[in-house]
Amino acid sequence: MSSVAVTAQTAGPAAARAAARRRARKSSGGTRRAGWIVYTLLGITLLISAFPLYFTLLLGSSDPVEISRNAVPQWLPDTSLFTQFATVISSTQINFWTALTNSLIIAVLVSASVVLFSTLAGYSFAKLRFRGRGPLLVFVIATMAVPTQLGVIPLYILMTDLHWIGKLQAVIVPALVTAFGVFWMTQYLSESLPYELIEAARVDGASMIRTFWSIALPAARPAAAMLGLFTFVQQWTNFFWPSIVLNSNNPTLPLVVKSLQSNYFVDYSLVMGGVFLVTLPLLIIFIFVGKQLVAGIMQGAVKG
Amino acid sequence: MAVLTPQRSAPDAGAAGREPRRLGFSQRLGRWDVKLSPYLYISPFFILFAVTGLFPLAYTAYVSVHDWSLLGGQGDFVGLTNFSDVLAQPTFWKSLGNTLSIFVLSSVPQVLVAITIAALLDQNLRAATFWRMGVLVPYVVAPVAVSMIFGRLFADQYGLINSILTLIGMDPIAWHGDRLASHLAIATMVNYRWTGYNALIFLAAMQAVPRELYEAAVIDGAGRIRQFFSVTVPQIRATIIFVVITSTIGGLQIFDEVRMFDVYGLGGPDQNWMTTVVYLYDLAWGDQHSLGRASAVAWLLFLLIILIGLINFLVTRRISTSDAAPKTTRKSSTRGNA
């Protein structure tokens, strides 16, 4: 079907228009370039953002005895950092590779699920007419403000009954959908998916699900990517619930930080080396997707 | 929307199929497709959300009126005993005080600094994306890692911050001893992670402010600082409230930072920095093993969050209705400059 091409053609100009609008707005903000004071202050802000991470590298490179005597044992990281990395990775109490794999599995599966189900529901709310649509959408929006994390105790009882304690599904299943995701996709699709496209596909004889798959899904791609990214970061850094249902034998990366603290609290250089190692994967991902994260927040992503 | 009624696909099907009976069947199928699909598409969300979100929340109320042990399971119905037990515990009230104190210490400076950073980013910058990404770096550091790193910076002995204080001739602070100092340290961790994030939300709101307002201010002779306070701040007021609300929901549930602030992770020997969620955790998975009492705490905290949320909502409504241009500002808080 030619519907994908049609979407690309219509999504193209729409995206271009939005970009042009943004450009125009930015340049109309003032032709005067920012002065050095602005750059200095921003530079300081960036230093404050980066310093704790740099400090972690420093402590990871130092001798534990030095750390307990001197606030800044040295000013430059050195190769002894890699010794700490090696110790953390090979430690039998830490299970680093298991944690990395687990974090990856959880973050990928949950992001994929949140994106798929949110897009499906968002498409339905944004573009289809059905009885009860209004009240149901209000319900979704209302539940965004409800702190469902407070339902941990029955959820824990449920996981115990299912014999899921210590298993990844205990973390994955409760995170499969979010009200925010549905709201986010509804908003995006109701603004950016023209009815004409759906109509055209229907006239061509496409079934409802076919229309969703070949019209709505491609059109939803930018918003879906952002939702996926935020869900990924949120799952990757999540600690509260995984610390309840998982243990140090089958941990995620944040749980590794806790194990490091309780197993090696006397060896601060090892702990800090481990903390950096745990932070590193997301930092690397950030280099590639940071721009999209910034755009996502500026389009109104809410803290999750 | 006419497209979503089956009649529209009928001519197409009619052209394709020659036999009237088959046409009737596919038409009926098409009608069901149109009628059921919307419900089918929203059902995964509602079913999963009901099972993993709403049901546990409601069932918390059921657990909270029972004697319920982590190991022994469900016990007798005890009415509101769990609630009265918890409310009689000084630790509960102390944890609530800690939570509110950390919340205030983290949200107020955070909003002020975030607005300042946003104002800097709103200038006509070279490499704007670089600066924006730069302030977002802390967001990708897990709270537990932030807590470990800052735990070292705020170490009572030989911590960097105390060393600097000593260097400039001040007394070192007992970050793990003094109650308010520990709150400040934990609030700093929260601020580190979220300030840049909120700055970007404010930046989006600032970019949605009509530029004519600034031009008018310039004509009236307002300098940059005056423009900021007389044009920018009033225009992004709704976004400020929006950020305050979201940080309220998060700020009242602080857990990770406290768990890592010392090795025991239960808020210190005198519960000086134990938050209410950590208290809940300790009741259920600590020595007491009391899921019943923990559920009572969960419900009390839930009611508190809803109450504060409602107050926020009412304040927001009042302020937005008195706002000269509420619509543009409100829009920017939910959708930014998209």
From TrEMBL, chain A:
GO biological process assignments: transmembrane transport
Protein localization: Cell membrane
Cellular-component GO terms for this entry: plasma membrane
InterPro entries membership: MetI-like, MetI-like_sf
Bilayer topology annotation: Multi-pass membrane protein
First-listed, main subcellular location of the protein, grouped into a coarse class: membrane
Keyword entries, A-Z: Cell membrane, Membrane, Transmembrane, Transmembrane helix, Transport
Keyword Transmembrane belongs to the record: yes
Transmembrane segments: 36-60, 104-125, 137-159, 171-190, 211-233, 268-289
Domain ABC transmembrane type-1: 100-289
Similarity comment: Belongs to the binding-protein-dependent transport system permease family.
PANTHER family, alphabetized: ABC TRANSPORTER PERMEASE PROTEIN MG189-RELATED (PTHR43744:SF12), ABC TRANSPORTER PERMEASE PROTEIN MG189-RELATED-RELATED (PTHR43744)
Protein's UniProt name: Cellobiose ABC transporter membrane protein
Organism in which the protein naturally occurs: Promicromonospora thailandica
Automatic annotation (TrEMBL), chain B:
Localization in the cell: Cell membrane
PROSITE patterns reported for this sequence: ABC_TM1
Presence of the UniProt keyword Zinc in the record: no
Transmembrane segments annotated in the record for this chain: 39-62, 100-121, 133-151, 236-255, 296-315
CDD domains per record: TM_PBP2 (cd06261)
Main location: membrane
Source species, domain of life: Bacteria
Keyword Transport included in the entry's annotation: yes
Membrane association type: Multi-pass membrane protein
Similarity comment: Belongs to the binding-protein-dependent transport system permease family.
Name by which UniProt lists this protein: Cellobiose ABC transporter membrane protein
Organism whose genome encodes this protein: Promicromonospora thailandica
